[in-house]
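Q: Start with the shorter request: fold the first protein.
A: Done. Sequence, then structure:
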Amino acid sequence: MDITGELVRLRAFRPDDAPAIAEALADPRVVAYLAQWAHGPYTLEQARAWTTEPATPGALNFAIESIADGAFVGSTGFHDIDHHNRHCGWGIWIGPPHHWGKGYGTEACVLSVEYAFRFLAMEKVHLYVYAGNDRARRSYEKAGFVSEGIRRRHYWRDGALTDVELMAVFRDHPLYSERIAPIA
């Protein structure tokens, strides 16, 4: 299923996304705030595997594509999907950096959260944001996320343990509640 907004489309990964993924994740500016990729370069072979292998159980991932030119501009996805308790984790990256500042991340965030509420029947979507990642934090706030607290010394980054902020958005947030029916 494709999820289309004004700026971006969320879609399934394709094998031809692999070079763009490898290029983006080879850029230290893109991976600076990504815990899972902070340990070295991301190869073309790893990118090919990402586009062809099924997601791990409890996860659902999307490629982010620019509506204007069809370019691959990033990735977004859900993890730890808990249908019983109706919450899931969510993450995103946009890259290479020439795609930053165009609204792609904010729109992908809103589309993702709406998808989680509408199709996954979630009540809550949560994420972690590194201390200092102000660009991402502003984007998340625009999509309705609020702070739930700080996890102290949670991820190893740049030779030290780093704090992350836990943020969440709920189904009844005004941005979503008027467009999504309540869960019975």
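Q: Next, the second protein, separately.
A: Sequence, then structure:
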Amino acid sequence: MAAPSRLDSEMTMDALMRRWPSTIPVVIRHGMLCVGCPIGRFHTVREACRAHEMDEALLIRDLIAAVVASR
């Protein structure tokens, strides 16, 4: 499977963090324990936000900011 070229809420948490390691601190800062979680291979960003009762738009905004800052 090719690495996704664009960050979106349908990516799995695992794919997100592998493609853009700069997002890992954002995930941790938001209190999500997705780093190393076996469900991260299957949970999309959207599903993880629902599971953690988190604002999806806020998380996406912070993830994109981390990716842009790492370039």
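Q: Describe the second briefly.
A: The chain is about 50% helix and 0% strand. Residues 9 and 46 are 5 Å apart (CA to CA).
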